């Protein structure tokens, strides 16, 4: 029987959030095709990762284990997954679109005579896979021609991790045959950002500010609202380019892609480069004095007004609601 496999990625000893989003994409594929959904975890020791994956809406969890799979190397992962997928005869393999996946997945697909349909934002009948082009100005729809395994990676924030459901899965083990001579790369120390680095992708609440704030001295007005909500402060590119906020707080095609429960856009017009990075948010609230601002096209709720009047009123309302 043809199957859909989602390859889960480890981050700090746990399955990454991006992997759960990939699993949600796999669930969508499973619903469209009627094929069973499976998950694979890979490394030198995968017991903890498999335990996490076992509770999700999959019928099987495969533990792909070998001592040479730690630390991560593109050679090791490519060899191991190639052997595993050849055995399973997978119909489709889904990955999160992370730096690690971009490192090895194209080589894996090429080794199996296929291409990787990368950075997918939605999946439709067929199935068809939608990708954004030219920083979101255009979209392209792709279909796998058949005759082999379909490889797909999904953009962060495009699928909601909470949509995977729950079940109890069978856990199996697979031991690939890997020789040390096949590992041609020597990994260095893992990159670690500074302690101040902000992971907006994992923030449940975000207040984001744009050029409507006019000058850096007005930023505390929006920061107070973010503090009242318990939200992270983010910004559009012009704010970060001006040095008013650090680049790590930029949302958009050249910044971070986010999908919080609430995205409150303050003084942001909604250029396509910004919308690409936040339109997967569960609830979008926009504050802008221009009723024709593009941000209102994706907003669930819009407030047409002067942010210097609206934001203090919102902040006060939030504070009163907490008392």
In the sheet with the most strands, the strands line up as 9-8-7-10-6-1-4-5-11
DSSP summary, beta strand count: 16
What is the string of SSEs from the N terminus onward? EEEHEHEHEHEEEEEEHEHEHEEH
Query: What would the principal axes of the Cα set say about the shape?
Result: elongated
SS-based class: alpha/beta
Classified in CATH, the superfamily of the largest domain is HUPs
Distance between the termini: 58 Å
Tell me the strand percentage band. Answer: 25-35%
If you consult CATH, what is the topology of the largest domain? Rossmann fold
Tally of helical runs: 8
Sketch the major β-sheet: 9 strands, mixed
Second rung of CATH, namely the architecture of the largest domain: 3-Layer(aba) Sandwich
CA-based gyration radius: 22 Å
Number of domains: 2
CATH class value of the largest domain: Alpha Beta
Q: Level of helix content?
A: 25-40%
Any low-confidence stretches, pLDDT <50, length ≥5? none
Mean pLDDT value? 91
At a glance:
It contains eight helices and 16 strands. It is of the alpha/beta class.
Characterise this structure.
It is a single chain. The protein is an alpha/beta fold. The chain has two domains: 4-182, Rossmann fold (3-Layer(aba) Sandwich); 200-322, TPP-binding domain (Rossmann fold), CATH 3.40.50. The chain has helices at 17-33, 47-54, 74-88, 99-111, 219-229, 237-241, 272-278, 307-322; strands spanning 4-8, 10-11, 14-15, 37-43, 60-65, 92-96, 116-124, 128-133, 138-142, 150-154, 170-174, 205-209, 232-235, 262-266, 283-288, 301-304. Strands 9-8-7-10-6-1-4-5-11 form a nine-stranded mixed beta sheet, sandwiched between helices. α3 (74-88) packs across α4 and α5 runs parallel beside α8. The longest helix is centred in the N-terminal third of the chain and has 17 residues, at 17-33.
